[in-house]
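Re: weekly structure request thread

Next one in the queue (325 aa):
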Amino acid sequence: MSRDFLPIVYSCLVFAILSPFSAESALTVGFYSTTCPSAETTVRSAITTALNGENGPAASLIRLHFHDCFVRGCDASVLLNASPTNPSPENNPVFNMRGLDLVDAAKTAVEAICPGVVSCADILAFAARDAFNLLVPGGSLYDVPAGRRDGNVSSFLEAVANLPAPTLNLTQLETTFAAKGFSLKELITLSGAHSIGQAHCSSFQSRLYPYDSTQIDPTFAQMLQGKCPQNATVNGVVTQDFVTSDSLDVQYYSNILNNKVLLFSDWALRTDPIAVTTIVSYSTDNLLNILWRPDFIKAMQKLGQLDVLTGTQGQIRSTCGAVNP
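Done, posted below.
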């Protein structure tokens, strides 16, 4: 979702036919308890080491997991690099993917202790959970059922067709999320990830020239114009939340109500009275995110079970960027 969670390409709203929870029962908490007992702690340690004290980039891991699961299900297809046989995978430069190096570091660490055992799809799910733990006030290591296998197909066109874009209105967003089995409230809950990370100017610049004062606070718009000049030759990067920029929290919801969000799709959430009720309830949450945090965890656990490959399906990739020979 965001520039650390959303693409800049407008979705044509052509959706893959998915059965969102067809393999839910096949995933289990502690899946690697006998085959690789330290898999989850190894991923966490590798991610923390690779971040080197800068937790901000961890937001990209949540976006990667979202991107992965929304396109072909949670099968690590988003991690596959371009190759002679597949020159246009999901990992297209237009999406400005970050965090791939973090996943690679975790995969290398796990392969060193348990070669050929832990899938890249599971590593990405663990890493997204670990990012949440690092970024949310007070931390939270929620359970992540595992047992996913890696896919060998990755398509840029499928990504464009399935991912929500920052230009969507609320009706289009609801349609996009409903196609994956998510309610309006879950859409709003997952959008809370926009309280961390950055967005490229290109994803919201059309809102600035000219800006609509009923949609974007004038002072905020003028500040953004200074960071994203109209005729700039470089696609700048802007912090999503200027109030608590290093924390994954409920400030995002106050920003929506104050017309201080970057993306049109964020502002669009306030155009429905039912949606506003949820936004207001989250915005009045305290710093520990008592209302939003459990809802976000449940939504992430549900996200992580979208159309997974299990059993003998797919493969366990040796490296996350390429299918096995």
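The two ends are 32 Å apart (CA to CA). The chain has two domains: 24-163, 170-297.
Next request, please.
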